[in-house]
Amino acid sequence: MKNTPVLLESPATAFGITLRSVWDIYADESYQVLWPRDKKLPLLSSAHVCVFTRQGHGVIRLRSGREIHAKGACVLLLEARDILSYACEGLLWELYWVEFVLHGPVTLPLNTPVLLRDPTAHSREFSELVSCVRVGDTNYQAYAAAIFTKVLYQWVALSNHHAEPAPLRRIQTVISQMHGHTDERWAVKDMARLYGASEQQFRKVFLQYTGQTPKEYFMNLKLDMAHALLNRSSLNVSQAAFKLGFSDAFHLSKAFKSRFGYPPSEVIREPRDSIDNVYLMDTAVSDA
C-alpha cells in the first residue's frame, strides 16, 4: 500500500473562462480578415484571443503597427482590442481562432508565439472542443470551455516554466523558417548556417529536439501541407508539387505514398464551403 501526500506550499486556484467564439479555419493565399469588422460578435475590451496554428504561415497585425508572424505549430495569445487584421502569409494557414474572457488575475504571455514541440495532443483536444460546440447543448458548451481552460493553463505553464536552452531556441528559429518557406529546396548546410553551427552539430541537436533528421522533418512538413492543399483547395497534384518546390508530380506522389500509404490522387477533397466557422454566442459577458 502506498499513501504519499503531495503538499502544496499555497492553495491552488484555477480561474474560469467564458468562450465567446471558436473558429476552425483553413486559410489560403487570398485570406484576410479586418478586425473587428469581419467578426460576428460585438468587441469586448476585456476579451482575449488565442491563435493556435496547426501548420502554415499567418500574420497578425496590431493597431500599434506591429506584425506578429505565426509559423508552424505555435500558440499566440492577444488582447482582442489590439488586433487590426490577420491574413494568410504563405500557401496556407490552418488554425483555431478562439475568443474568450478570462475571469481572474492570470498573467498571460501576450504577443509572443509559443512554439509547440508536440502539437498532436493539443490538436486532438481542440478537435474534441469543436465537436462539443457543434452539439449546441449547454453542458457540452461548458465541457468545451473546460477543455480550453485546461489547454490554456498548459500553455501558460509552458511559457513561464523556464527559458529554453539557447540551442533549442535556435532550432525553433530554423523550424519557423521551414514553415514560412515550404516552396524552397533547403539544403542541410543552409539550415546549419542559419542555426549557427557545423552540419554535424546541427543534425545532432535537431534530431535530439524533433526525433527526425532535418531532411526528414522538412519533407514531412511539405507532405503534410500537400495533403492539406489537396484536401481543402482546388489545386491538383501537379500544381501542389509546383507550389511546394517538388521537381514534378511524380516525385511528390512517390514521397506522398511512402508517408501516407496511398497516392495523392486518392485524397478526398472537401468542398470549399465546408470550412468550419463555429460561433459561441455569449450574451452573459459584457464590459459593463
From TrEMBL:
It comes from the Bacteria. Keywords: DNA-binding, Transcription, Transcription regulation. This is HTH araC/xylS-type domain-containing protein. It holds the Pfam family HTH_18. GO terms for molecular function: DNA-binding transcription factor activity; sequence-specific DNA binding. It comes from Marinobacterium aestuarii. Residues 172-270 form the HTH araC/xylS-type domain.
